[in-house]
Amino acid sequence: MKKGYVCDHCLGRQFAQLLTGMSNKKRGGIIRKFVAMEIEKEGETEIEETNLDGINFRRYEPNVKKKKCFVCEGLFGELDEWCGKIMVELQGNEFDNFLIGTRLPDELVKREEDLWEDIGIEYCEEMKAEFNRELGKKLEERTRKDVEFELPEIQILVDVDEDNVELIVNSLCVYGEYQKLERGIPQTEWPSGKYEISLEEIIAPAFLRAADSSDEKFHGAGREDIDALCKGWRPFILELLQPKKRNIDLEKIEEEVNENDEVNVRNLQIVQRNKIEELKKWQPDKSYRALIELGKDVLKKDLEKLKELETTLTQRTPQRVEHRRADRYRKRKVKKIEWKKLSEGELEIRVKAEAGTYIKEMISGDGGRTEPSVASILGTDAVCTELDVIEIHDKDGLQFKN
Ligand SMILES: [Zn+2]
Question: Where are the domains of the chain?
């Protein structure tokens, strides 16, 4: 206060770590009045007297001049103005929570640091922290929405230096489970346009329309082969980018998506963005149904040997995917296998296996790269002609409630 006029915010902030349950502005006001009492008692002072503006003395008459806080340059007097600018930017966006981040001009930051050199930093708080908080409180009042530190729906970047407000609208994530009922459909869009349509392109449009969102990302809990059906319900998260709307009617969307014959979705629910990671890590067992053509007919009693497949397979990265996956060996467990002879040289099997088991290779042996295999056990060629995922197990392992 000897250095010049300092506002209640900046005065109180230097003692922010003392007492709780009040704002820095309140602290500053208390300190100022305490100092004023001392001045009235002594009848004189060494502080810049503009600091005493607005205080009702009985006897002392301070010499008050035009004032501007030398620490924040009046920034805390502009809170309402900034709040108004943010409201304009927020127009048309549906949200329940937000977080404010501020960039202060370098001179202000420097001036605060210089001040700390003089008076110490034992009890202080950064100007930026107070500004974010006070602006957040005002915006909470205006919007009736909450500040959210961890996963805010909207981040508001206030650049005081550039006199600018920018919004980062975070994704809206919808969890769901899908069934794929037609072959030849990849899970996500192929850049080459090799396939007519993907699951993603069938599922996403209804969501994009409802959320008024510009784009999306599709995250599946694994994926089935393009030519395989998925009759089991596979979890996915659709990440809607920059949504204008967040309160979307999931029941209506589900109905809309399910109008097509290729794909069904169910159990739609809004989830937090951090669930994507959880989904990606999830490793459920899966059950498959496969049709197999054998190189020669095998007697029913010899098929009993297929039980030997209930073991841990060693699978080298299959030839069909080796151009896009690292070449390595991995162990995967086949937990259960059942079979039925359909006709001469033709089998149907049902297999339950660990996540990531290459089923087609478990059948063919992939030129010896998978051991053991249907082919190696029966001693003849074996080709998978049809593959369906019939069940995805242990869905309870995923906790998708918010
Ligand atoms: Zn100030």
Answer: 1-71, 77-170, 172-282, 286-395
